[in-house]
Structure formats: structure tokens, C-alpha cells
Structure prediction request, 577 residues.
Amino acid sequence: MARLGDRPGFWTTLAVDDVPHHAYVFAGGAAVYALAFPAVTAGRFAADLLEATASLTLIALAALLAVAVVRTVLRRSRLSLPSIAGEVNRRFAVRLFVAFIAVAVVALIVLQVVVRNFVSDRLRREAADDALDRAAFAKKIVDDYAYYKRPEAAGEKPVTDEALVWVASIIRNDLDLFDRGRLLASSKRELYSSGLLAPRVSGPVYRALVLEGQPSALRTERIGDFSYDVASVPVRLDGAEPGILSIPLALRQREVESALEDLDRTMRLASLVFLVLAAVVARSVARRISGPISDLTRATLRVAGGDLGARVETRSQDELRRLVEAFNKMAGDLERQRRDLERSNRLAAWAEMARQVAHEVKNPLTPIQLSAEHLRRVWRDRSEDFAATLEGCTQTILKQVRILRGMVTEFSAFARPPSPGLESHDPAAIVAEVVEPYQSALPPEVHLVVEIEPGIPRVRADRRLLERGIVNLLENALQAVGERGWIRVGLRSEDGRRRVMIEVRDSGPGVDPEIRSRIFEPFFSTKTSGSGLGLALVKKIAEDHGGGVSLESGGREGTRAILWLPAEDEAGRAVGL
Prediction:
């Protein structure tokens, strides 16, 4: 002790109830004191770090919620409560995930409240019972001590502070002894000497034990904002009035609060781990449920876009699997029905083409037959100029043969057009070359005007097919104006020079609205002659080049046919698709 008193205090590690504590040991007079606090282990440090991270996450979520509330009050459209709720409602997986987490959070909160209240009540009851047991044990010791150490001289205390310190070391709790309501002895005399505690017994305790004769009393005392329980029992001293032995339960109460804090910490960490696992499970369940639904949605959009080969795969064995199998069966049935319909349409198209070909071929065959019969009759009669008749009939026959050859060429071009060989061309040069032969062969009352915008971008096209398309538009316009009118051929760019527009206008009678939608159908024609394939072939040529064709009719502008193609970029690629 002398050596310890000569040296300053020092830090060391002590085991308190088998728990390591960092302690500062120092000497004060004849006593040695130690101030200790629990040592932080690696597990405790990890738990503290995890709890701090969770707290920061909750603070961040609270801040985000506050921002959303403020933006909602300010009627902002983004990052507001309605926008967040709308985003959650739009996605089934998110909605399922939020619902799963919400149920888990509510269940954890209810479980924590129930468990903590149960454990808290249990610990406090056990602490009170333990305090009364300690009080009864201390009472027996003090009674025996007071009996065997009865004072021999007047004014001598039946029980001294040293005796209570000894009893306190046995029961491991401080003790106070009151005689006639005043402090007689204490194991912590310094608290009374400093004025922190009043040296008188509490009135309700005195009334319960002395006046009412109750065997024990448990009451809550308060020092400032600090409250603690005190267990009190009567003891036999040398007077007629029993003394009061009080056991303050501040340390025991602190142990209970520490146990509850550890319980709260453990439950918080367990809840955090459970929430993480719940989030993982919720995400897995949400993906397991919403994944096939998302796949079904994408496959449905593909089917709606015409891709009937879309199928969905799933590993689920529940109702989702039956839904996926029903969708796959439906898509398969649609694909099979489309094949059957295409086959039927092809057969119907070939039948229609055969009927149209037979009809169109029959028209020129009639004058050929009549010319041949007329020649045979003149040859037999010898009454007419056979040479003149032969010349006229052969001219008729040759003309009709040319008509037949033209029909065959058109039917062949439409039924099996050559694959376009795309190359870079100047559309202005193609238009000028196509229009030039018509300039000198038009009827006197028909005027042809060409309007070409300067700087037209190049296009990737099959020159022969594109020329045929322009020729068909010009022929259609010439047939529309007849012997009198005007035709304007225009060339310009649109859509930021991404499209090249070839426009043919005429002053003809126009096209009725009810038949305008069918004007590009094969074999459809408003004229008594021709195969009805001219504009259909123009449409096919335009689509094969990645472009399109349209027809507008009515008003002072006359009828306008437009064939457009994607312009070529600097790398030689079509950019207007």
C-alpha cells in the first residue's frame, strides 16, 4: 500500500464479472480506488460500426423524406411524394419489394416492443425480488451483529460504519442503517458527509415499517434528475423502536438498464441483419415474380410488332409457369395461323394474278384473231387489195404483240423483281436523264416543267430500278392530263437533308378519296387499259430502297405523287431510314 501511495495512478485491465474493463487505479489515503469502463472488443467495435452505419442510413432516408415533403409542399413535380409513389406504383417489382420490407419492419417493431417490455418487466421484478432477498439476508446479519455487539457504554453505536461496509462486501451492495429516523451507520458515509444524501429516512418508508409494521418496503428515491429504487426492512436495535435497514439499488438498477441497453443493441443489430436478409429475399421473390411478367410484357410487345417467334422461358413451377406456357402456346398458334394465312393469301394472290393475266391477255388476242380471220377472208375472195389488207392486219397484229410483251414484262417485274444493286448516285442527274426524252415528245398542249433544288444530297440506289419508278410516275401523270395540261417534276431534300423527295404533279382530274387508299395495290387501276401494276411497282421499288411513296389529290395543286429515298451520309450510308 505504501508503495502504491508513493506512485501516481496507472491504467490496467481488470475482469469485472468476467467482462474485461479498462481501469485507472490510484490510492487515496488508506484506500485504493479503481475507475473502470468496459473494454471495447473487436466484436463490439464491429457492432458499433454497423449500428453507426445504420444510423447514418436512417438519417439520410429521413433527410430524403424531408426533401420530398418540402418539394411536395412547393408543388415540384420531381422528387416529390406523388412522384415517388407514382414510380413505385408503375413497377410491380418495386411495389412488391416495398411491401415486403414494410411488413418486415412492422413485424420487427412489434416484436421489439413486445420483447423489450417483457424482458424489462421480468428484469425489474427479478431485481426487486433480489433486493428484498438481499435485504432479508442483510437484516439477519445486522440483527445478529447488533445482538452480539450490544453497546456496553452509553452513547456507543450498536452498529458502526465498518460493520456495514463488511456486510455490504458480503451482499455486494451498499447499506444504510437508520435509528429513530436518523442515519446511524452507512457503507458510503462520504455521500452523506458531502450533503448529496439527506441523513434522514424517507417519511413513507418510516410510516410503512415503523408505524404500520410492514415487513418490507420498496420505494423510488430521487437525487436531482437521477432516480433509483431503495429496498428497506426493519431491524432490531437496542431501542424499543425498530431501526430501518435500507439497500439502495442504484447499481442493480444500472445493471438492469445496461442489460436492457445490450438487449436493445442486440435486437437492433439482429433487426438490421434480418432486414438485409429480408431485402435480399424480397428482391429475389420480386424478381422471381416480376421477371416472368417483364419477359411476358416484352414478348407481348414483340408479338404485337409481328415477331410471332417470341417465346418466354421460366423456371417457376407455379401459376406463373402455367401463364408462360399459355402465352407460348398462344404465340405458337398465332405463328401457325399466320403461316396458313400467308399460304392462303399467296394462293389467292396467284389466283387473282392468273385471272388478271387471262383477262389482260384476252384483250389483245381479240384484234389479233379478227385480223387473222380478215386476212384469210380477203385471201379467199381476191376481191380486195390483198397487199393493203395484209399491211393493215400485220400492223394490228404486231401492235397487239407489243402490248402483250409489255404486259408480260410488267407482270414479270412485279412478281420477281431483281434485287437492287445499291450504289451512290446523284438523283438530280437521274431525274434529268429520265425527263429529257419526254421534253420533245409531248403533245403541243402539255407543258412539262422540271424544278431541281440545288445541292441535293446523293442517294444509294439501283439506277435502273429508280429510273423505272420515275418513268412509271411520269407515264401515270401523262395518262392523267391527256392532250392538254401541265406536269411538274420536282426534286428537293427534307428532314434536315436526311431525305430526298422526287415529286411529280399533274393537272389531271385527280383521284377520288374512296379509291385513293387502294391506288398502290397490285392490279388496281382506274383506266380501262394497262395491268394495274405501275404504281404498285413504284411502291415496291421505293420500299426496297428504304423509302416510300404517297399520293395526294385535290385542290388547285392537282395530283401529287411523291417518291422519297434516304439520303447518303459522308460514310456512304443511308441516313434517312
